[in-house]
Each structure stands twice: as structure tokens, then as C-alpha cells.
Amino acid sequence: MKKLLLMGVIFLYSLNMVSVTTSANVKPQVQRISQAEVQFENEFRRLWIDHVLWTSNYITSATTAGAEDQKEVLARLLKNQEDIGNAIKPVYGAEAGNKLTDLLKEHIVLAGKIVDAAKSKNENLVKQLNKEWYRNADDIAAFLSGANPNLKNEDLKNLLYMHLKLVSNDLSASLAKNWNVKIVSIDEGVTHIILMADTISQGVIKQFPDKF
């Protein structure tokens, strides 16, 4: 009996040693990130950060008495929407890129109208325009999720809605001349837009791994 028990212990010990040796010989999987992937993610992130910063600059120009750069800042902001649309053309094509640009330009035009309505304290018009603004966000989410199965419509809507909220915070702080709150809203806006940009870019890379 003792001999059988001893043999069993030796057998189990041998199995354990084989397992340890095998585990030691297995090399951990290393996920490699290509230079093209890093470049795409960084560029896409930069474009969306520009989106937040130039939107904030436009709000400042539009709400500051005597500001003379509103026209030029708006032109630069609209150019940013073209840049974002152009960024997806290599994977989705020119038509899709132009469609995204059109949706984003509508987003900016509506934001500009909201700024003007808020300056004139037309609350009813602000509410009406806000509905259009959020409808446009729904359209952007539907477009992106329709083009990419890795991007969920509801997730994108939540991200875009938060972006609109943070832009509204910037506008409210600017109108109230509460510069500390405005600074916080910009910081929060940049942090959030990085999350949104990364969500979209990672979805694109997952959809088209051969292109990265």
C-alpha cells in the first residue's frame, strides 16, 4: 500500500514538473503595434483636439465685444471638419469622407447659431437649435456605426452627447465671463475628445487591420 502511494506521489510530481517546464518554455504573446497604426491614431486624436480648441476659440471670438477674428477663426474651424473627413478617406473612400465632413460642418453651423441665440438671450430658439444639434449628433453616430460594425451606435451617441454638453459648458462660462469655469470646460473637453477619437480610430484599425 505504501509503495502504491509513493508511486502515486512520484507520478503527480512528474506531471507537475512537466507542466512547469512547459509553462516556462511558452513565450508570452507580444502584441505588436505598427507605425502606421500609431500614426493614424495620433493624427486622428490631434484633429479632434483641434476640433475642441478651435470651437472654443470661436466661442471666445463670438462672445467677446470688439473681437475681430471671428470670421478667420470660423474658417479655420470649418477647415478642421474637412481634415477629419479627409482622414477617413484612405479606408472608406472619398464619398464617405465628404459625408462625414458635411455632417461635421452642420454640427459647427448649428453651434454657431446656438452661440448667437444664447448671446441674444433667445431661450426658445436655443432650445429649438439644441434639438437640431442633438439630431445632427445622432446622424453622425448613425453614419459611423453604419460604416463600421465595431462602432456601436449607442456608444457613439453617448460620446457625442457628452461633447455637446462640454461645448455648452464652454459657451455658458464665456457668456458669464467665468474664465475659471471656461478653462475647466476646455480641459474636460480635450480629455473627453481624446477618448472619442481613440474609440473611433481603434474601431477603424480593427475593421481594416491589413491597412495598418
Counted beta strands: 0
Radius of gyration: 26 Å
Mean pLDDT figure: 90
The largest sheet is: none
Shape: globular
Q: Ranges with pLDDT <50 over ≥5 residues?
A: 1-15, 17-24
The rounded distance between the terminal residues' Cα atoms is 64 Å
Which percent range fits the helix content? Answer: over 70%
Quickly count the helices: 7
Q: What percentage of the residues does DSSP assign to strands (E)?
A: under 5%
Count structural domains. Answer: 1
Write structural notes for this entry.
This protein has 212 residues and is mainly α. The chain has one domain (34-211). It has helices at 2-25, 35-63, 70-92, 94-119, 123-147, 153-175, 179-207. Helix 2 packs antiparallel against helix 7, helix 4 (94-119) packs antiparallel against helix 5 and helix 5 (123-147) packs antiparallel against helix 6. The termini are far apart. Mean pLDDT is 90; it is low at 1-15 and 17-24.
